[in-house]
Amino acid sequence: MTDPTKDHKRVSAEGRALGATMARLADKACSQLVALDEPDDRCKSCAFTAGTVPNGCLQTQMDVAKAVVENVPFLCHQADRKGWPCHGWYAVRAVINETEKAKGPLLDQVGPCPWDFSPPDAEVA
């Protein structure tokens, strides 16, 4: 099986459009954290980084959106970080968490996403 972070067949126009929005949010959030002396630790194939395969994959971006809105940890796809929370997700949620202190939970404002998370990819041999 092809490594899903390198499978360019997964990239679509819809995925790139949603991914561009998520990347802009993450870039801004990571910049805010860098200003507080926290490094931007997004991996090289981060779903929150413009131009990566996961950033252009609609299935992944739908999972990203659901994870952000519902405050469910989105885990890193990269082999050496597999199982750890994605830094892009963490940065976006850190900014949202600050906003929620004033406005209440995002989930209360927009409701849960009406789709399920995608099933995990099969392990790459």
H and E string: HHHHH
Biggest β-sheet, characterized?
Answer: none
Strand-residue fraction? under 5%
> Outline, from the CA principal axes?
globular
Mean of pLDDT: 90
Percent helix, as a range, is 40-55%
| Number of separate strands | 0
Give start-end ranges of low-pLDDT stretches.
none
Number of domains: 1
Radius of gyration, CA atoms, in whole angstroms:
14 Å
Distance between the termini: 7 Å
Question: Helix- and strand-based class?
Answer: mainly alpha
List the total number of helices: 5
What does this protein look like?
- The chain has one domain (11-107).
- The protein has 125 residues and is mainly α.
- The chain has five helices and no strands.
- The chain is globular and about 40 Å long.
- The mean pLDDT is 90.
Write the layout of secondary structure elements.
Blueprint: H1 13-35, H2 53-56, H3 58-70, H4 87-103, H5 106-110
Helix pairs in contact: 1-3, 1-4
What can be said about this structure in brief?
The protein is mainly alpha-helical and 125 residues long. The protein has one domain (11-107). The protein is built from 5 helices and no strands.
Search tags:
single chain, 125 residues, mainly alpha, 50% helix, globular
